[in-house]
Amino acid sequence: MYKTIRHILKHNRFQILFILLFLLATCLLTQALFKDKTVRVGIDNVSVRTGPALRYQKTGTLNSGKRVTVLKKENGWIRVRYNDHHFGWIPAWLTNRTYDFQKATNLSEATIVLDPGHGGNDSGALGINTKHEEKVYTLKTAKTVKKALEAKGARVIMTRSTDVYVGLAPRAALANKKQADAFISFHYDSAPTNNSGSGDTTYYYHKNTSLQLAEIINSQLKANLNLTNRGVRFGDFEVIRDNNQPALLIEGGYINTTRDFKQISSQRYRNQVARSVTAGLTEFLAKK
Question: How many domains does the structure of the chain reveal?
Fold first, then answer.
């Protein structure tokens, strides 16, 4: 028997090796496929919806640790099967990770596009000391807001994350493509002469989609910022005019006014803006 086995192995070693390699590859591929098809819900009270966005009807909820089967991916959401015969869409970013809070909210299930104004060869407005460029502070502010929103579970997309130029049209187009639940553009004002202007202003373009968001966030800015609040105003700016999503543009103070710039250049101010935007979006999205 032993000699027979040796004979078979000797004369069929290449075929046997091929079969073993084929079986190994099949096992690895099967394992990978099954691993990719299941994910674990990372937080309690995640809404299951009829489509891949916050605007779709809620049909159920899933809690932390629940394993679901992934059937399809679209725009950051996944269509899943759970409890054998139930189907729906959940945010992919709320799976396979843990959070510092217990329950999902509309904010944690939302996609927010943040737009740091200017960038690259477009410096924006200049401070009294012209080395201070608007593009630097819009990016610093947006990054602080991003961190605060992500801490609440939101999916945040930046129109730029570094000092690069991005055209106005692509900024609005990104929010439309991602079907963002809100778009916020950060800017800083400049007066014709130094120290002749002061205060922050919140602009909207589309009354039906954006005025309520502008009013809610502006009320938070008014309460939290140590600046003169200039209120909510209509603004014909391309990044909000061409936006199909709830969109606003914040002029967060005058960069060429000494008093305002002292605020704008501080981390404390950026934290206040982040707190205001987070609270405002939480209130706005809770109405959805």
Answer: 3
CATH, residue 145: 3.40.630.40
The pTM (predicted TM-score) of the whole model is 0.86
Find residue 115's DSSP bridge partners.
185
**Structural domain includes residue 10:** yes
Residue where the block lists tokens 């496929």: 33
CA distance 158 to 150: 12
The verdict on residue 187 lying in a domain is: yes
Whether 25 contacts 11, CB under 8 Å: no
Q: What is the 3-state secondary structure (H, E, C) of 8-28?
A: HHHHCHHHHHHHHHHHHHHHH
Determine the Cα–Cα distance for residues 144 and 272; give it in Å rounded to an integer: 10
DSSP assignment of 56-74 equals: SPEEEEE-TT-EEEEEEEE
- Do 90 and 128 belong together in one domain? no
* Tokens standing for residue 246: 């709830």
What is the domain extent for residue 205? Answer: 111-286
Question: Is residue 117 domain-shared with residue 248, that is, in the same domain?
Answer: yes
What average pLDDT values come out for the chain (288 residues) when binned by 10 residues? Answer: 54 60 58 67 96 95 96 95 94 91 94 98 96 98 98 97 98 97 98 97 98 98 97 98 98 98 98 98 93
Q: In CATH, what number is assigned to the domain containing residue 88?
A: 2.30.30.40
The two tokens of residue 232 are 């909510």
Sign of CA dihedral 48, 49, 54, 58: negative
User: 120 and 86 in one domain?
Assistant: no
Sheet with 58-62, strands from edge to edge, namely 38-40, 67-74, 77-82, 86-91, 46-49, 58-62
In three-state secondary structure terms, 215 is helix
Same domain, 133 and 230: yes
